[in-house]
């Protein structure tokens, strides 16, 4: 019931946040297959448990992406958001963990809070591509592991000049005296904060839905277990009473006989 009440408000904020990153997807695209040397995988997980396998799914996708993006001349690091993701990844990937962030969801998420965290990440990691892994909310019982890629300004400019999906970037008009590099730098920072905010909300909403389903399943299982134990107790009690009655009747028959 608690998760259901929290889910309703989180779902509204999640749906509203999707309008933040969608313009960036149209302007800069989302290129998960781009080949770069420095990859940073940002795994978003929860700080609390009892929410099914939502965190395990994010960790599995993170490990698979790490294998894909790693190589002899490539470097792939982790930035972990949430205690549950940290606990799982630190077992066999401790040397690859660059930064960990906990208790981001201690208070209701807002853009200002996430923007500060995004700025902290950008100042402490070197990257060519940031790959954010989160669970995208679809319904209470459906959420999908999703990867969103945010490229560095240098890689964006390289892709734009090579005539790829970003080849039409120069067709847009810009205002102000900023150079193209400065504009791309500002766009990359703002894009990352918007994507991280939306991803955190999507994952939080998926977490609440998964927790509600897990608690509902736990309640049903507990009820079934209680019914079975009650039935076993009643049968045992009835057998004990029957045995005592037989003994009393047999003793009375022996005395009268």
UniProtKB/TrEMBL annotation:
<keyword id="KW-0496">Mitochondrion</keyword>
<dbReference type="Pfam" id="PF00231">
    <property type="entry name" value="ATP-synt"/>
</dbReference>
<dbReference type="InterPro" id="IPR035968">
    <property type="entry name" value="ATP_synth_F1_ATPase_gsu"/>
</dbReference>
<comment type="function">
    <text>Mitochondrial membrane ATP synthase (F(1)F(0) ATP synthase or Complex V) produces ATP from ADP in the presence of a proton gradient across the membrane which is generated by electron transport complexes of the respiratory chain. F-type ATPases consist of two structural domains, F(1) - containing the extramembraneous catalytic core, and F(0) - containing the membrane proton channel, linked together by a central stalk and a peripheral stalk. During catalysis, ATP synthesis in the catalytic domain of F(1) is coupled via a rotary mechanism of the central stalk subunits to proton translocation.</text>
</comment>
<keyword id="KW-0809">Transit peptide</keyword>
<dbReference type="GO" id="GO:0046933">
    <property type="term" value="F:proton-transporting ATP synthase activity, rotational mechanism"/>
</dbReference>
<keyword id="KW-0375">Hydrogen ion transport</keyword>
<keyword id="KW-0999">Mitochondrion inner membrane</keyword>
<dbReference type="GO" id="GO:0045259">
    <property type="term" value="C:proton-transporting ATP synthase complex"/>
</dbReference>
<keyword id="KW-0472">Membrane</keyword>
<comment type="subunit">
    <text>F-type ATPases have 2 components, CF(1) - the catalytic core - and CF(0) - the membrane proton channel. CF(1) and CF(0) have multiple subunits.</text>
</comment>
<comment type="similarity">
    <text>Belongs to the ATPase gamma chain family.</text>
</comment>
<keyword id="KW-0813">Transport</keyword>
<keyword id="KW-0066">ATP synthesis</keyword>
<dbReference type="GO" id="GO:0005743">
    <property type="term" value="C:mitochondrial inner membrane"/>
</dbReference>
<dbReference type="InterPro" id="IPR000131">
    <property type="entry name" value="ATP_synth_F1_gsu"/>
</dbReference>
<dbReference type="InterPro" id="IPR023632">
    <property type="entry name" value="ATP_synth_F1_gsu_CS"/>
</dbReference>
<protein>
    <recommendedName>
        <fullName>ATP synthase subunit gamma</fullName>
    </recommendedName>
</protein>
<keyword id="KW-0406">Ion transport</keyword>
<keyword id="KW-0139">CF(1)</keyword>
